Amino acid sequence: MTDLQNEQLARISVDPRQAVVYEHGWQSWSPTAGYRLDQRPFRPVSDARRVGNYRPERTAPPGAFWGEGLLAVDPGTGEGVHVFATPSPAGEIPSIRADVEGDVVVVRGPGTVVHTVGEGADGLDSALARWGGDFAAAAGVGALRPPPTVWCSWYHYFERVTQGDIEENIAAIGELGLDIDVVQIDDGYQSEIGDWLTLSDRFASLSATVDDIRRTGRRAGIWVAPFLMGARSAVLREHPEWAIGGAHPGRGWGQDLAALDATHPGAEACLRDVFGTLRAMGIDYFKIDFVYAGAMEGRRADPQSTGVDAYRHGLRVIREAIGPEAYLLGCGAPILPSVGLVDAMRIGPDIAHHFEPLDGDLSQPSQRGAAMNSRWRAWQQGRFWVNDADCLVAGTHVERRADWADVVADYGGLRSSSDRLRSLDAWGLATTRRLLQPGLVAPFVS
Question: Based on the structure, what is the number of domains in the chain?
Fold first, then answer.
């Protein structure tokens, strides 16, 4: 549905040739960009894309600009940038609409939206950075920890990764002398989506693999989609009452998916058990993915909890289970509701070996979408968290690989590699070696 709260918040006189409207998307993969007034903003190509990659319960209008919790207008007149935003990462996150009426931009949204105006010719990036710093401080974001450098299994092996593949790359890191702190086991080790403590037939022992990583002096990392349960999973079959009623997060892995209700006592206990067990195994780097599902609206065990409140509760449960020293990376995550709860955040869609998204939707894996969001969410670096532009993929099969390496260099606070290391050519290895430097915590300055 479309958010119908449309109180007029401002009428802004603009220079139609110079003005820019900034749309901030709902979650990591949602397109986020600044647009000229004559440009059409990116919209989902299908309802399935909207649910899984935009804001599930809301449909942005095609003929207007639309920000989820944040929208800004640079009038192009040399006067201050207008920022319209949610007052808090908790509670209801408003949708904010901007319509162009000749040389005026009319901004509408609920009365809870906070409207601030910058001074003088302060540019859009500076205005967003200033707002972001204030928002982070109000949300209690403290000093950020330097991120580790990471090798991740996903972009070469995908969900078919084996224990042997992990072992090969552990050895290759040492052979090649790469400055990699964490070896992250991505999707594929688990038996089903939701059954995180039982293994696929490609892994004989997760704890043995973790021990092998740690014996090299490196840290062990793992991927979990904590708020998803697959139709084939034992957890959903045995506990259907843990699903958020009426929430349908889509399909994936060849099956229908359900969203875990973190307010249900049994589901909360399951989260604590999963993450506590993995932490006790020696894992201290966690990438949590597809977490938009935890914020979906629907029937919950706690009927007073909004989707955002339930989501933030779930992230706090995960943090308590892994402890304050473990590193937590969010992905597929509602952006503003996550502020103050993760160490690092994926700020765009997945990178891919191809430049354009295969179905034309910029929320889908592609270099184009990942680069666009990395640029337009750069201001979040060092303010909300450490920005993750996504992994460096440097193999010869990667389209425009040098361009993507430049994006990682310019916008990647968290630096990670996701190639089969022994298959890299001379350029790929040199680029990987150059970019896998200690991560960045300093705020981005345009």
Answer: 2
